[in-house]
Amino acid sequence: MSRSHPQLEMEPVYGFFHALGKIVYEMFFHGEVLGLENIPREGGFILASNHASHLDPFGVGIHVPRQVSFFARKTLWHPGFASWWLDAVGTIPVDRDGGMSLEAVRRVLEALRHDRAVIVFPEGTRSPTGQLQPPRPGVGLLACRSQVPVIPARIFGSFEALGKNGRLRPGTPISVVYGPPLSPEHYDNPADGKERYPRAAERIMEAIARLEFPGETIL
User: Fold this and answer.
1) CA–CA distances in Å: residue 137 to residues 12, 122, 145, 147, 206
2) pLDDT tens digits, residue range 71-130?
3) In the 8-state DSSP scheme, what is residue 124?
4) Contact indicator for 148, 46 with CB cutoff of 8 Å
5) pLDDT score recorded for residue 164
């Protein structure tokens, strides 16, 4: 992989918008990015982040030097450019409330089996306050079924840049911290029985909560 130009290793449409996104980030939202050494250079993995803004997929994904798949609400697939673009960059449709259909689960597991990376927001929907919310079991299901590493990530500043029901504020720094990988033995315990997926999701969310931005105390 070309570390200076990772877009060359991506599919053309994704690579183009990844490069464009980097320019937009540097111009309008430049902040600190820590822990990129924790991103696997090969193999499938789940990147699990908190979710406070529509900017989060952009803010979390733009620094990853590999092509990743995202989730988006089914309602965004409008005829024309929107549907073409969402399909071209490998977006996976989900229900409006963040729920995943069997088809969405199948597509995620298939992507992971083919050594792709997938970004997941365990909270399921954007936080109304910017604070961390309880996770839904979906991320636990995907992690336990795939048995791939999970990279916890925490994004800071996106709620201030574009919070729920807020307005866009260019110039607001958006920073991201990527934590050490969680291997299956750290998030999955088959002995949990019916609670296996919810408890896996809780362990992943706890790893996200532990990530701190240098100089700040996370309450």
Assistant:
1) 34, 8, 12, 15, 13
2) 888 888 888 888 888 888 888 888 765 567 788 888 889 889 888 899 999 998 899 999
3) S
4) yes
5) 77
- Dist CA 170 CA 24 (whole Å): 10
| Residue 72: strand pairing partners | 93
Q: Which of 153, 101, 94 is nearest to 125 (CA)?
A: 94
In this structure, are strands 117-120 and 68-69 parallel, antiparallel, or unpaired? parallel
The answer to whether the beta carbons of residues 20 and 95 sit under 8 Å apart is: no
Per-residue confidence (pLDDT) for residue 219, from 0 to 100 = 39
Cβ neighbours of residue 84 under 8 Å, at least 6 residues apart?
none
What is d(CA 32, CA 107) in angstroms, rounded to the nearest whole number? Answer: 32
Q: Which two tokens stand for residue 62?
A: 């733009």
CA distance 216 to 61: 23
Alpha helices in 2-95 (DSSP H): 12-28, 56-61, 81-88
CA–CA separation, 173 and 104 (whole Å): 33
Strands (DSSP E) found in the chain = 33-34, 45-49, 68-69, 71-73, 92-94, 117-120, 150-156, 175-178
